[in-house]
């Protein structure tokens, strides 16, 4: 099928070239998801007026922390939007989806659980009996709150919904309807309720279909299939000001209330990543970013992103002593960023090595 004037198209099954701006956005999203996993050693510093390092961090660092917080909290949204842009236009039977994509993630969940079990046994936190007992093994795989396993289940849910999302993606008015309902009930209403200190709305349990895990892939596909004329300098300026305005609003909330998560978290999942994706596509379309050298570098790194993410949970704590050393002579925020860059580099290198093993490349 081809793109129709009135709505999104399901393309033919002919493989398409990778879009450089999406691959670049994938790499950026990995960095921010790693920063998101720093917790109290990184992004949570935005809400601490006093830390374990100094009695009164400057307001400048508070502003920097809030901006970092905003970006790290859009990482999962970016991954979902990228997945939508890449997968919703594909035409494949459900049997292929189950055999090629769903089975891959089920295997990964089992493999990651097994690897984590042996790792915990190696460091003395679990017994070999816990690993070899089938029921206990399945219980751990199903209920694990590990940061990597969490995303595997999230993405598995998205894959099961993919056939339905592809039907919606064929009609742009249906995509817009889903986006508008999501923004109204999942983004704007929670912000007003939090700001006014109101109770949660009774409607939330009944609009689960409009969750970010299903709407954001549609949003990513919608932006990716916008006509080129929409990516004008004027529109780019408007989007840039909107994103900057959101960042300033976030800083203002933190400055006055020393809290930002409950007030702005809802719209961080949609509005900011929308602006980011638009700007990345605009820059790619209107500049020399698409030159061969840059494109080659991006295309070498982007296939490693998923595997690097799976490795990052253990690598993060393996290199944690570096962070502990750095905070002795620099601000915690800066030490945290250097720590994340190290996790980023080591995870990518580790994934590159693992992909040399036969069969592993197809999984990660």
Class per helix and strand makeup: mainly alpha
| Shape type | globular
The poorly predicted ranges are 1-15, 49-56
Strand content: under 5%
Counted by DSSP, the helix tally is 17
Radius of gyration, whole Å? 21 Å
How would you describe what is shown here?
This protein is mostly helical and 364 residues long. The chain contains 17 helices and no strands. The two termini are 30 Å apart.
Furnish the topology, listing elements before pairings:
Layout lengths: L19 H17 L22 H14 L2 H13 L6 H29 L5 H5 L1 H10 L3 H23 L2 H24 L16 H13 L8 H25 L3 H8 L2 H16 L5 H10 L3 H14 L1 H7 L5 H23 L5 H4 L1
Helix pairs in contact: 1-3, 1-12, 1-13, 1-14, 1-16, 2-10, 3-9, 4-6, 4-7, 7-9, 8-9, 8-11, 9-12, 10-12, 14-16, 15-16
Question: In a few lines, what is going on in this structure?
Answer:
Helix content is 70%, strand content 0%. The protein is an all-alpha fold and 364 residues long.
């Amino acid at each position: 099928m081809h793109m129709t004037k009135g709505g999104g198209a399901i393309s033919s099954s002919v493989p398409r070239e990778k879009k450089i701006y999406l691959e670049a956005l994938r790499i950026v999203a990995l960095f921010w998801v790693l920063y998101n996993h720093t917790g109290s050693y990184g992004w949570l510093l935005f809400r601490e007026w006093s830390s374990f390092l100094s009695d009164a961090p400057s307001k400048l660092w508070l502003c920097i922390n809030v901006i970092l917080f905003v970006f790290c909290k859009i990482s999962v949204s970016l991954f979902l939007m990228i997945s939508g842009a890449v997968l919703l236009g594909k035409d494949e039977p459900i049997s292929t989806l189950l055999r090629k994509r769903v089975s891959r993630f089920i295997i990964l969940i089992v493999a990651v659980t097994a690897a984590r079990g042996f790792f915990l046994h190696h460091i003395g936190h679990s017994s070999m009996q816990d690993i070899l007992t089938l029921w206990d093994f399945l219980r751990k795989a199903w209920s694990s709150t590990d940061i990597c396993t969490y995303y595997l289940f999230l993405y598995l849910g998205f894959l099961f919904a993919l056939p339905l999302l592809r039907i919606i993606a064929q009609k742009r008015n249906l995509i817009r309807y889903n986006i508008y309902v999501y923004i109204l009930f999942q983004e704007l209403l929670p912000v007003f309720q939090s700001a006014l200190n109101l109770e949660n709305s009774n409607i939330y349990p009944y609009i689960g279909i409009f969750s970010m895990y299903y709407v954001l892939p549609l949003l990513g596909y919608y932006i990716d299939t916008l006509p080129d004329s929409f990516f004008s300098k004027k529109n780019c300026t408007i989007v840039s000001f909107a994103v900057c305005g959101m960042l300033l609003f976030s800083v203002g909330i933190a400055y006055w209330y020393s809290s930002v998560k409950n007030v702005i978290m809802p719209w961080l999942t949609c509005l900011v990543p929308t602006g980011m994706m638009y700007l990345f596509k605009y820059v790619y379309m209107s500049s020399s970013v698409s030159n061969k050298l840059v494109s080659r570098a991006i295309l070498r790194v982007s296939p490693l992103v998923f595997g690097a993410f799976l490795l990052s949970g253990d690598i993060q704590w393996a290199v944690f002593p570096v962070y502990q050393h750095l905070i002795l002579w620099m601000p915690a925020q800066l030490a945290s960023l250097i720590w994340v860059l190290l996790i980023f580099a080591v995870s990518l290198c580790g994934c590159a090595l693992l992909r040399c093993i036969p069969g592993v490349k197809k999984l990660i």
